[in-house]
Amino acid sequence: MARPDELVFAPLGGVGEIGMNLSIYGLGNRHQRAWLAVDLGVSFGDEEHLPGIDLIMPDISFLEKERKNLMGLVLTHAHEDHFGAIIDLWPKLKCPIYATQFSAALFEAKCAAERNAPEIPVTVIPSGGRVDVGPFNVEFIPVAHSIPEAHALAIHTEAGTVLHTGDWKIDPTPTLGRPTDEKRLRELGEEGVLALIGDSTNAVRDGRSPSEAEVARTIIDLVKAAKGRVAVTTFASNVARIKAVADAAKAADREVVVVGRAMERVVQVARETGYLDGVQNFRSPEVYGHLPQDKVLALCTGSQGEPRAALARIANDDHPEITLNRGDSVIFSSRTIPGNEKAVGSIINNLVLQGVEVLTDRDHLVHVSGHPRRDELRDMISWVKPQLLIPVHGEALHLNEHAKLARAAGVPRVLVVRNGDLVKLGPGDPGVVGEVPSGRLYKDGTILEDSKSRAVIERRRMAFSGCAFVAIAMTEQGELADDPEVDLVGIPEKNRAGEAFDDIVFDAVMSTIEGLPRARRRDPDALGESVRRAVRAVINEHWGKKPPCLVHVLTV
Protein backbone atom coordinates (compact mmCIF):
# COMPACT_ATOMS: atom_id res chain seq x y z
CA MET A 1 0.00 0.00 0.00
CA ALA A 2 1.40 3.42 -1.03
CA ARG A 3 2.28 5.79 1.77
CA PRO A 4 0.06 8.89 1.85
CA ASP A 5 1.54 12.19 0.76
CA GLU A 6 3.04 14.35 3.50
CA LEU A 7 2.00 17.97 3.95
CA VAL A 8 4.94 20.19 4.96
CA PHE A 9 5.36 23.88 5.78
CA ALA A 10 8.43 26.16 5.77
CA PRO A 11 8.61 29.89 6.52
CA LEU A 12 11.21 31.61 4.34
CA GLY A 13 10.53 35.03 5.92
CA GLY A 14 8.30 36.60 8.54
CA VAL A 15 9.26 34.37 11.50
CA GLY A 16 11.43 35.91 14.22
CA GLU A 17 10.73 39.25 12.53
CA ILE A 18 7.81 41.41 11.46
CA GLY A 19 7.87 41.86 7.70
CA MET A 20 9.30 40.04 4.65
CA ASN A 21 6.57 37.39 4.75
CA LEU A 22 6.95 34.28 2.62
CA SER A 23 5.55 30.87 3.54
CA ILE A 24 5.62 27.70 1.46
CA TYR A 25 3.54 24.53 1.69
CA GLY A 26 4.61 21.26 0.10
CA LEU A 27 2.61 18.12 -0.70
CA GLY A 28 4.31 14.87 -1.70
CA ASN A 29 7.28 12.86 -0.43
CA ARG A 30 10.95 13.55 0.25
CA HIS A 31 11.85 13.04 -3.40
CA GLN A 32 9.19 15.18 -5.04
CA ARG A 33 6.73 17.72 -3.75
CA ALA A 34 4.31 20.18 -5.27
CA TRP A 35 4.79 23.62 -3.66
CA LEU A 36 2.43 26.49 -2.90
CA ALA A 37 3.83 29.92 -1.91
CA VAL A 38 1.86 32.34 0.26
CA ASP A 39 2.81 36.04 0.12
CA LEU A 40 6.11 37.55 -1.02
CA GLY A 41 6.88 40.66 1.01
CA VAL A 42 9.63 43.09 1.97
CA SER A 43 11.14 44.61 5.08
CA PHE A 44 12.57 48.11 5.06
CA GLY A 45 16.25 48.97 5.42
CA ASP A 46 17.67 50.61 8.52
CA GLU A 47 20.05 53.44 7.58
CA GLU A 48 22.07 52.88 10.75
CA HIS A 49 22.85 49.22 10.06
CA LEU A 50 22.25 48.98 6.30
CA PRO A 51 23.19 52.35 4.76
CA GLY A 52 21.81 52.76 1.25
CA ILE A 53 19.58 49.66 1.42
CA ASP A 54 15.93 50.50 0.71
CA LEU A 55 14.33 47.07 0.85
CA ILE A 56 15.09 43.63 2.27
CA MET A 57 13.56 40.56 0.63
CA PRO A 58 13.51 36.84 1.38
CA ASP A 59 16.05 34.61 -0.32
CA ILE A 60 14.08 32.50 -2.82
CA SER A 61 16.94 30.27 -4.02
CA PHE A 62 15.04 27.17 -2.80
CA LEU A 63 11.95 28.10 -4.83
CA GLU A 64 14.10 28.85 -7.88
CA LYS A 65 15.45 25.27 -7.74
CA GLU A 66 11.90 23.94 -7.26
CA ARG A 67 10.44 26.25 -9.89
CA LYS A 68 8.95 23.45 -12.02
CA ASN A 69 7.14 22.16 -8.90
CA LEU A 70 5.92 25.60 -7.76
CA MET A 71 2.19 25.56 -8.50
CA GLY A 72 1.49 29.20 -7.65
CA LEU A 73 1.73 32.20 -5.32
CA VAL A 74 -1.36 33.20 -3.33
CA LEU A 75 -1.66 36.65 -1.72
CA THR A 76 -3.46 37.17 1.59
CA HIS A 77 -3.60 40.97 1.13
CA ALA A 78 -1.79 43.93 -0.41
CA HIS A 79 0.47 45.29 2.32
CA GLU A 80 4.11 45.78 1.32
CA ASP A 81 5.35 43.23 3.86
CA HIS A 82 3.18 40.66 2.07
CA PHE A 83 3.44 41.58 -1.62
CA GLY A 84 6.23 44.18 -1.96
CA ALA A 85 8.90 41.80 -3.33
CA ILE A 86 6.88 40.41 -6.25
CA ILE A 87 8.05 42.88 -8.92
CA ASP A 88 11.72 42.11 -8.18
CA LEU A 89 11.49 38.37 -7.52
CA TRP A 90 8.65 37.06 -9.70
CA PRO A 91 10.83 37.01 -12.86
CA LYS A 92 12.94 34.33 -11.13
CA LEU A 93 9.82 32.19 -10.51
CA LYS A 94 7.28 33.03 -13.24
CA CYS A 95 4.53 31.14 -11.38
CA PRO A 96 0.78 31.93 -11.48
CA ILE A 97 -0.38 34.52 -8.90
CA TYR A 98 -3.81 34.48 -7.25
CA ALA A 99 -5.38 37.41 -5.37
CA THR A 100 -8.73 39.08 -4.81
CA GLN A 101 -9.81 42.18 -6.73
CA PHE A 102 -8.46 45.00 -4.55
CA SER A 103 -5.05 43.33 -4.05
CA ALA A 104 -4.77 42.66 -7.80
CA ALA A 105 -5.76 46.25 -8.67
CA LEU A 106 -3.31 47.77 -6.17
CA PHE A 107 -0.56 45.50 -7.51
CA GLU A 108 -1.36 46.58 -11.08
CA ALA A 109 -1.15 50.25 -10.03
CA LYS A 110 2.17 49.57 -8.26
CA CYS A 111 3.57 47.96 -11.44
CA ALA A 112 2.35 50.91 -13.55
CA ALA A 113 4.21 53.35 -11.26
CA GLU A 114 7.47 51.35 -11.39
CA ARG A 115 9.96 51.94 -14.20
CA ASN A 116 10.48 48.88 -16.39
CA ALA A 117 8.26 46.63 -14.28
CA PRO A 118 7.73 43.24 -15.96
CA GLU A 119 4.26 42.23 -17.06
CA ILE A 120 3.00 40.03 -14.25
CA PRO A 121 -0.42 38.39 -14.75
CA VAL A 122 -2.64 37.98 -11.68
CA THR A 123 -5.70 35.72 -11.55
CA VAL A 124 -8.52 37.40 -9.60
CA ILE A 125 -10.44 35.18 -7.16
CA PRO A 126 -13.65 36.44 -5.53
CA SER A 127 -13.63 37.09 -1.79
CA GLY A 128 -14.86 33.88 -0.17
CA GLY A 129 -14.01 31.96 -3.36
CA ARG A 130 -11.88 28.87 -3.93
CA VAL A 131 -9.24 27.96 -6.49
CA ASP A 132 -7.32 24.77 -7.29
CA VAL A 133 -3.57 25.41 -7.38
CA GLY A 134 -2.03 22.07 -8.30
CA PRO A 135 -3.05 19.62 -5.54
CA PHE A 136 -3.97 22.50 -3.18
CA ASN A 137 -7.52 23.82 -2.99
CA VAL A 138 -7.22 27.35 -1.58
CA GLU A 139 -10.21 29.10 0.00
CA PHE A 140 -10.17 32.87 0.61
CA ILE A 141 -11.89 33.55 3.96
CA PRO A 142 -12.56 37.27 4.68
CA VAL A 143 -10.91 38.72 7.80
CA ALA A 144 -10.87 42.26 9.19
CA HIS A 145 -7.54 44.10 8.83
CA SER A 146 -6.23 47.58 8.06
CA ILE A 147 -6.58 47.21 4.28
CA PRO A 148 -9.52 46.07 2.13
CA GLU A 149 -9.87 42.41 1.24
CA ALA A 150 -7.53 40.76 3.73
CA HIS A 151 -8.07 37.01 3.75
CA ALA A 152 -7.14 33.99 5.77
CA LEU A 153 -6.41 31.03 3.51
CA ALA A 154 -7.89 27.61 4.16
CA ILE A 155 -5.51 25.33 2.27
CA HIS A 156 -7.37 22.05 1.64
CA THR A 157 -5.29 18.98 0.74
CA GLU A 158 -5.64 15.18 0.85
CA ALA A 159 -3.41 15.24 3.97
CA GLY A 160 -5.65 17.70 5.79
CA THR A 161 -6.62 21.39 5.97
CA VAL A 162 -4.36 24.20 7.14
CA LEU A 163 -5.61 27.64 8.12
CA HIS A 164 -3.03 30.29 7.21
CA THR A 165 -4.49 33.37 8.95
CA GLY A 166 -2.47 36.12 7.26
CA ASP A 167 -2.95 39.43 9.10
CA TRP A 168 -6.30 39.68 10.85
CA LYS A 169 -8.30 40.96 13.80
CA ILE A 170 -11.87 40.67 15.05
CA ASP A 171 -13.74 43.91 14.35
CA PRO A 172 -17.51 43.52 14.56
CA THR A 173 -18.02 47.11 13.30
CA PRO A 174 -15.49 47.74 10.49
CA THR A 175 -16.15 51.02 8.69
CA LEU A 176 -15.35 49.40 5.36
CA GLY A 177 -15.29 45.85 4.00
CA ARG A 178 -16.42 42.60 5.58
CA PRO A 179 -15.84 41.54 9.20
CA THR A 180 -13.88 38.39 10.01
CA ASP A 181 -16.04 35.45 8.85
CA GLU A 182 -16.64 33.75 12.21
CA LYS A 183 -19.31 31.45 10.74
CA ARG A 184 -16.98 29.97 8.10
CA LEU A 185 -14.10 29.65 10.58
CA ARG A 186 -16.37 27.75 13.01
CA GLU A 187 -17.46 25.46 10.15
CA LEU A 188 -13.80 24.75 9.35
CA GLY A 189 -13.25 23.86 13.00
CA GLU A 190 -16.11 21.35 12.82
CA GLU A 191 -14.72 19.88 9.59
CA GLY A 192 -11.29 19.49 11.19
CA VAL A 193 -8.18 21.69 10.93
CA LEU A 194 -4.78 20.02 10.92
CA ALA A 195 -2.78 23.20 11.63
CA LEU A 196 -3.27 26.89 12.29
CA ILE A 197 -0.39 29.11 11.08
CA GLY A 198 -1.17 32.30 12.95
CA ASP A 199 -0.40 36.03 13.21
CA SER A 200 1.48 36.79 16.47
CA THR A 201 2.03 40.56 16.14
CA ASN A 202 -0.06 41.55 19.18
CA ALA A 203 0.30 38.35 21.22
CA VAL A 204 1.84 40.38 24.06
CA ARG A 205 -1.22 42.66 24.38
CA ASP A 206 -4.18 41.74 26.58
CA GLY A 207 -7.83 42.22 25.68
CA ARG A 208 -9.15 43.09 22.24
CA SER A 209 -8.11 45.58 19.60
CA PRO A 210 -10.63 48.48 19.42
CA SER A 211 -12.80 48.93 16.31
CA GLU A 212 -12.19 51.20 13.34
CA ALA A 213 -15.61 52.72 14.12
CA GLU A 214 -14.24 54.13 17.40
CA VAL A 215 -11.28 55.71 15.59
CA ALA A 216 -13.63 57.26 13.03
CA ARG A 217 -15.66 58.93 15.81
CA THR A 218 -12.50 60.33 17.46
CA ILE A 219 -11.21 61.77 14.18
CA ILE A 220 -14.57 63.50 13.55
CA ASP A 221 -14.41 65.12 17.02
CA LEU A 222 -10.79 66.29 16.59
CA VAL A 223 -11.30 67.71 13.09
CA LYS A 224 -14.49 69.51 14.13
CA ALA A 225 -12.67 71.07 17.11
CA ALA A 226 -9.66 72.26 15.06
CA LYS A 227 -9.37 75.99 14.37
CA GLY A 228 -6.69 76.30 11.67
CA ARG A 229 -5.52 73.98 8.94
CA VAL A 230 -5.53 70.25 9.67
CA ALA A 231 -3.20 67.59 8.30
CA VAL A 232 -3.77 63.88 8.89
CA THR A 233 -1.16 61.23 8.18
CA THR A 234 -1.84 57.51 8.11
CA PHE A 235 -0.72 54.37 6.27
CA ALA A 236 -1.62 54.98 2.62
CA SER A 237 -3.11 51.48 2.30
CA ASN A 238 -5.63 51.98 5.14
CA VAL A 239 -8.67 52.79 3.00
CA ALA A 240 -11.04 52.59 6.00
CA ARG A 241 -9.00 55.32 7.70
CA ILE A 242 -8.97 57.41 4.50
CA LYS A 243 -12.77 57.14 4.42
CA ALA A 244 -12.97 58.11 8.13
CA VAL A 245 -10.83 61.20 7.47
CA ALA A 246 -13.00 62.13 4.48
CA ASP A 247 -16.16 61.76 6.61
CA ALA A 248 -14.60 63.93 9.33
CA ALA A 249 -13.69 66.60 6.78
CA LYS A 250 -17.23 66.58 5.39
CA ALA A 251 -18.69 66.92 8.92
CA ALA A 252 -16.41 69.92 9.53
CA ASP A 253 -17.11 71.47 6.10
CA ARG A 254 -13.52 71.00 4.90
CA GLU A 255 -12.09 69.96 1.53
CA VAL A 256 -9.68 66.98 1.48
CA VAL A 257 -6.37 67.58 -0.32
CA VAL A 258 -4.40 64.36 -0.99
CA VAL A 259 -0.63 64.80 -0.67
CA GLY A 260 1.82 62.05 -1.64
CA ARG A 261 1.99 59.63 -4.56
CA ALA A 262 1.36 56.46 -2.51
CA MET A 263 -1.82 57.98 -1.08
CA GLU A 264 -2.98 59.15 -4.53
CA ARG A 265 -2.43 55.63 -5.91
CA VAL A 266 -4.45 53.91 -3.17
CA VAL A 267 -7.27 56.48 -3.42
CA GLN A 268 -7.48 55.88 -7.18
CA VAL A 269 -7.60 52.07 -6.75
CA ALA A 270 -10.14 52.34 -3.89
CA ARG A 271 -12.43 54.46 -6.09
CA GLU A 272 -12.07 52.05 -9.03
CA THR A 273 -12.94 49.05 -6.84
CA GLY A 274 -15.91 50.75 -5.15
CA TYR A 275 -14.45 51.18 -1.67
CA LEU A 276 -14.89 54.97 -1.74
CA ASP A 277 -18.35 55.03 -3.32
CA GLY A 278 -20.31 57.98 -1.97
CA VAL A 279 -17.16 59.69 -0.62
CA GLN A 280 -16.65 63.27 -1.88
CA ASN A 281 -14.01 63.95 -4.55
CA PHE A 282 -10.59 64.91 -3.19
CA ARG A 283 -8.56 67.91 -4.34
CA SER A 284 -4.97 68.12 -5.61
CA PRO A 285 -2.16 69.89 -3.68
CA GLU A 286 -2.20 72.97 -5.98
CA VAL A 287 -5.58 73.95 -4.51
CA TYR A 288 -4.38 73.85 -0.89
CA GLY A 289 -3.04 77.41 -0.66
CA HIS A 290 -6.22 78.91 -2.16
CA LEU A 291 -8.62 77.42 0.39
CA PRO A 292 -9.47 79.19 3.69
CA GLN A 293 -7.53 77.78 6.65
CA ASP A 294 -10.65 76.40 8.33
CA LYS A 295 -11.89 74.78 5.12
CA VAL A 296 -8.98 72.47 4.24
CA LEU A 297 -7.67 69.11 5.44
CA ALA A 298 -4.43 67.67 4.01
CA LEU A 299 -4.29 63.87 3.91
CA CYS A 300 -0.55 63.08 3.83
CA THR A 301 1.88 60.22 3.41
CA GLY A 302 4.80 59.99 5.82
CA SER A 303 3.41 58.56 9.06
CA GLN A 304 6.60 56.51 9.52
CA GLY A 305 9.01 59.41 9.13
CA GLU A 306 10.01 58.53 5.56
CA PRO A 307 12.37 61.35 4.55
CA ARG A 308 10.96 61.81 1.02
CA ALA A 309 7.29 61.53 2.01
CA ALA A 310 4.95 64.51 2.19
CA LEU A 311 4.89 65.05 5.96
CA ALA A 312 8.69 65.13 6.36
CA ARG A 313 8.89 67.81 3.67
CA ILE A 314 6.08 69.79 5.32
CA ALA A 315 7.80 69.54 8.72
CA ASN A 316 11.07 70.74 7.15
CA ASP A 317 9.18 73.58 5.46
CA ASP A 318 10.36 72.54 1.99
CA HIS A 319 7.13 71.22 0.43
CA PRO A 320 6.32 73.23 -2.72
CA GLU A 321 2.57 73.51 -1.98
CA ILE A 322 1.74 72.53 1.59
CA THR A 323 2.64 74.65 4.63
CA LEU A 324 1.57 74.59 8.27
CA ASN A 325 1.74 77.44 10.76
CA ARG A 326 1.15 78.22 14.42
CA GLY A 327 -2.36 77.13 15.42
CA ASP A 328 -2.61 74.38 12.78
CA SER A 329 -2.96 70.70 13.77
CA VAL A 330 -1.43 67.41 12.63
CA ILE A 331 -3.07 64.08 13.51
CA PHE A 332 -0.84 60.99 13.41
CA SER A 333 -3.50 58.33 12.73
CA SER A 334 -0.89 55.56 12.86
CA ARG A 335 1.42 53.57 15.08
CA THR A 336 5.18 54.07 14.80
CA ILE A 337 6.73 50.84 13.53
CA PRO A 338 9.69 49.78 15.74
CA GLY A 339 12.88 51.22 14.25
CA ASN A 340 11.18 54.37 12.95
CA GLU A 341 10.94 56.17 16.32
CA LYS A 342 13.84 58.58 15.68
CA ALA A 343 12.57 59.62 12.24
CA VAL A 344 9.00 60.14 13.47
CA GLY A 345 10.23 61.97 16.58
CA SER A 346 12.26 64.35 14.43
CA ILE A 347 9.17 65.25 12.35
CA ILE A 348 7.05 65.78 15.46
CA ASN A 349 9.71 68.03 17.02
CA ASN A 350 9.99 70.12 13.84
CA LEU A 351 6.22 70.56 13.74
CA VAL A 352 6.08 71.55 17.43
CA LEU A 353 8.85 74.11 16.89
CA GLN A 354 6.66 75.68 14.18
CA GLY A 355 3.81 76.02 16.71
CA VAL A 356 1.76 73.18 15.22
CA GLU A 357 -0.35 71.05 17.60
CA VAL A 358 0.52 67.36 17.17
CA LEU A 359 -2.10 64.73 18.12
CA THR A 360 -1.05 61.07 18.40
CA ASP A 361 -2.37 57.76 19.70
CA ARG A 362 -0.65 58.54 23.02
CA ASP A 363 -3.40 61.04 23.81
CA HIS A 364 -6.38 60.13 21.57
CA LEU A 365 -7.87 56.99 19.99
CA VAL A 366 -6.70 57.98 16.49
CA HIS A 367 -5.28 54.57 15.56
CA VAL A 368 -6.03 50.91 16.16
CA SER A 369 -3.95 47.93 15.17
CA GLY A 370 -5.03 45.57 12.41
CA HIS A 371 -3.74 42.58 14.39
CA PRO A 372 -5.39 40.41 17.08
CA ARG A 373 -4.76 40.83 20.79
CA ARG A 374 -4.82 37.90 23.20
CA ASP A 375 -8.60 37.50 23.59
CA GLU A 376 -8.98 37.49 19.80
CA LEU A 377 -6.27 34.82 19.49
CA ARG A 378 -8.21 32.71 22.01
CA ASP A 379 -11.40 33.18 19.95
CA MET A 380 -9.68 32.01 16.77
CA ILE A 381 -8.35 28.91 18.53
CA SER A 382 -11.80 28.09 19.97
CA TRP A 383 -13.46 28.45 16.55
CA VAL A 384 -10.89 26.53 14.50
CA LYS A 385 -9.86 23.87 17.07
CA PRO A 386 -6.51 23.14 15.38
CA GLN A 387 -4.55 19.97 16.19
CA LEU A 388 -1.33 22.01 15.79
CA LEU A 389 -0.56 25.73 16.07
CA ILE A 390 2.57 27.41 14.66
CA PRO A 391 3.03 31.10 15.56
CA VAL A 392 4.36 33.30 12.71
CA HIS A 393 4.49 37.02 11.87
CA GLY A 394 6.33 38.17 14.96
CA GLU A 395 9.65 38.55 16.72
CA ALA A 396 10.85 35.93 19.22
CA LEU A 397 8.86 37.43 22.12
CA HIS A 398 5.61 37.54 20.11
CA LEU A 399 6.01 33.95 18.90
CA ASN A 400 6.76 32.69 22.40
CA GLU A 401 3.75 34.48 23.96
CA HIS A 402 1.44 33.18 21.21
CA ALA A 403 2.75 29.65 21.82
CA LYS A 404 2.17 29.90 25.60
CA LEU A 405 -1.36 31.21 25.02
CA ALA A 406 -2.11 28.35 22.58
CA ARG A 407 -0.90 25.70 25.04
CA ALA A 408 -3.00 27.27 27.81
CA ALA A 409 -6.01 27.24 25.45
CA GLY A 410 -5.65 23.47 25.04
CA VAL A 411 -4.12 23.20 21.53
CA PRO A 412 -2.72 19.61 21.48
CA ARG A 413 0.57 20.51 19.73
CA VAL A 414 2.37 23.87 19.48
CA LEU A 415 5.61 24.38 17.54
CA VAL A 416 7.80 27.50 17.55
CA VAL A 417 9.94 27.49 14.40
CA ARG A 418 12.53 29.62 12.63
CA ASN A 419 12.86 30.78 9.04
CA GLY A 420 14.10 27.82 6.99
CA ASP A 421 12.68 25.09 9.24
CA LEU A 422 10.87 22.40 7.25
CA VAL A 423 7.91 21.23 9.34
CA LYS A 424 5.90 18.08 8.72
CA LEU A 425 2.26 18.97 9.46
CA GLY A 426 0.79 15.54 8.79
CA PRO A 427 -0.18 12.78 8.59
CA GLY A 428 1.22 11.47 11.87
CA ASP A 429 3.21 13.38 14.47
CA PRO A 430 4.12 16.92 13.43
CA GLY A 431 7.66 18.26 13.88
CA VAL A 432 10.68 19.87 12.26
CA VAL A 433 12.04 17.31 9.78
CA GLY A 434 14.67 19.32 7.94
CA GLU A 435 15.84 22.68 6.73
CA VAL A 436 15.55 24.58 3.46
CA PRO A 437 17.82 27.46 2.36
CA SER A 438 16.62 30.82 3.69
CA GLY A 439 18.16 34.24 4.10
CA ARG A 440 17.93 37.82 2.94
CA LEU A 441 18.34 39.75 -0.27
CA TYR A 442 19.12 43.46 -0.17
CA LYS A 443 17.81 45.83 -2.82
CA ASP A 444 20.70 48.23 -3.38
CA GLY A 445 19.53 50.81 -5.92
CA THR A 446 18.37 48.61 -8.79
CA ILE A 447 20.60 45.63 -7.84
CA LEU A 448 19.69 42.66 -5.65
CA GLU A 449 22.55 41.58 -3.37
CA ASP A 450 22.70 38.67 -0.94
CA SER A 451 23.49 39.17 2.74
CA LYS A 452 27.20 38.42 2.16
CA SER A 453 27.42 41.26 -0.34
CA ARG A 454 30.78 43.00 -0.15
CA ALA A 455 29.17 46.34 -0.96
CA VAL A 456 26.74 46.11 1.98
CA ILE A 457 29.41 44.97 4.47
CA GLU A 458 31.95 47.60 3.37
CA ARG A 459 29.39 50.41 3.35
CA ARG A 460 28.43 49.56 6.92
CA ARG A 461 32.10 49.67 7.95
CA MET A 462 32.66 52.95 6.08
CA ALA A 463 29.61 54.50 7.79
CA PHE A 464 31.17 53.60 11.15
CA SER A 465 34.81 54.48 10.55
CA GLY A 466 35.29 56.31 7.24
CA CYS A 467 37.77 55.18 4.61
CA ALA A 468 41.42 55.83 3.67
CA PHE A 469 42.54 55.96 0.02
CA VAL A 470 46.23 55.75 -0.92
CA ALA A 471 47.67 56.00 -4.44
CA ILE A 472 51.33 55.03 -5.04
CA ALA A 473 53.33 55.32 -8.29
CA MET A 474 56.42 53.04 -8.44
CA THR A 475 59.11 52.55 -11.08
CA GLU A 476 59.92 49.07 -12.39
CA GLN A 477 63.08 49.22 -10.28
CA GLY A 478 61.00 49.51 -7.10
CA GLU A 479 61.55 53.23 -6.45
CA LEU A 480 58.89 55.87 -5.76
CA ALA A 481 58.12 57.80 -8.95
CA ASP A 482 56.38 60.57 -7.00
CA ASP A 483 55.04 61.30 -3.51
CA PRO A 484 52.15 59.00 -2.49
CA GLU A 485 48.69 60.57 -2.51
CA VAL A 486 46.53 60.17 0.60
CA ASP A 487 42.79 60.94 0.79
CA LEU A 488 40.91 60.39 4.06
CA VAL A 489 37.10 60.33 4.00
CA GLY A 490 35.04 60.44 7.20
CA ILE A 491 38.17 60.45 9.38
CA PRO A 492 38.94 63.29 11.86
CA GLU A 493 41.28 66.00 10.60
CA LYS A 494 43.51 65.88 13.71
CA ASN A 495 44.36 63.47 16.52
CA ARG A 496 44.09 64.34 20.21
CA ALA A 497 47.52 65.99 20.14
CA GLY A 498 46.40 68.27 17.29
CA GLU A 499 48.52 66.51 14.63
CA ALA A 500 47.01 66.31 11.14
CA PHE A 501 45.85 62.81 10.21
CA ASP A 502 46.90 63.41 6.58
CA ASP A 503 50.51 63.88 7.76
CA ILE A 504 50.36 60.90 10.14
CA VAL A 505 49.12 58.59 7.37
CA PHE A 506 51.52 60.00 4.76
CA ASP A 507 54.50 59.38 7.10
CA ALA A 508 53.26 55.81 7.77
CA VAL A 509 53.01 55.13 4.00
CA MET A 510 56.53 56.52 3.36
CA SER A 511 58.17 54.61 6.21
CA THR A 512 56.43 51.37 5.17
CA ILE A 513 57.65 51.68 1.55
CA GLU A 514 61.18 52.62 2.59
CA GLY A 515 61.32 49.70 5.06
CA LEU A 516 60.43 47.05 2.45
CA PRO A 517 63.06 45.08 0.53
CA ARG A 518 63.30 46.09 -3.14
CA ALA A 519 61.78 42.76 -4.29
CA ARG A 520 58.57 43.40 -2.30
CA ARG A 521 58.45 47.00 -3.53
CA ARG A 522 58.42 45.63 -7.11
CA ASP A 523 55.40 43.41 -6.31
CA PRO A 524 52.29 45.70 -6.44
CA ASP A 525 50.13 43.24 -4.43
CA ALA A 526 52.68 42.78 -1.66
CA LEU A 527 53.37 46.52 -1.50
CA GLY A 528 49.67 47.39 -1.44
CA GLU A 529 48.93 44.91 1.36
CA SER A 530 51.84 46.17 3.50
CA VAL A 531 50.72 49.79 3.11
CA ARG A 532 47.07 48.88 3.82
CA ARG A 533 47.98 47.17 7.10
CA ALA A 534 50.26 50.03 8.15
CA VAL A 535 47.64 52.72 7.44
CA ARG A 536 44.89 50.88 9.37
CA ALA A 537 47.28 50.30 12.29
CA VAL A 538 48.45 53.92 12.55
CA ILE A 539 44.89 55.30 12.34
CA ASN A 540 43.78 52.82 15.01
CA GLU A 541 46.72 53.91 17.22
CA HIS A 542 45.72 57.60 17.00
CA TRP A 543 41.90 57.26 16.79
CA GLY A 544 40.85 53.87 18.11
CA LYS A 545 39.11 52.81 14.88
CA LYS A 546 40.29 50.74 11.91
CA PRO A 547 38.76 52.14 8.72
CA PRO A 548 38.81 50.26 5.42
CA CYS A 549 41.89 51.27 3.41
CA LEU A 550 42.07 51.07 -0.37
CA VAL A 551 45.58 51.17 -1.87
CA HIS A 552 46.17 51.64 -5.58
CA VAL A 553 49.70 50.84 -6.82
CA LEU A 554 50.64 52.03 -10.30
CA THR A 555 53.86 50.89 -12.00
CA VAL A 556 55.34 53.53 -14.35
UniProtKB/TrEMBL annotation:
Keyword Cytoplasm: yes
MF-aspect GO terms: exonuclease activity; metal ion binding; RNA binding
Keywords from the named record: Cytoplasm, Exonuclease, Hydrolase, Metal-binding, Nuclease, RNA-binding, Zinc
Record-annotated Metallo-beta-lactamase domain positions: 21-219
Keyword flag Hydrolase: yes
Bilayer-crossing regions: none
Pfam family, one: RMMBL
CDD domains in alphabetical order: RNaseJ_MBL-fold
InterPro entries reported for this sequence: Metallo-B-lactamas, RibonucZ/Hydroxyglut_hydro, RMMBL, RNase_J, RNase_J_2, RNase_J_b_CASP, RNase_J_C
PANTHER family: RIBONUCLEASE J
UniProt protein name: RNase J family beta-CASP ribonuclease
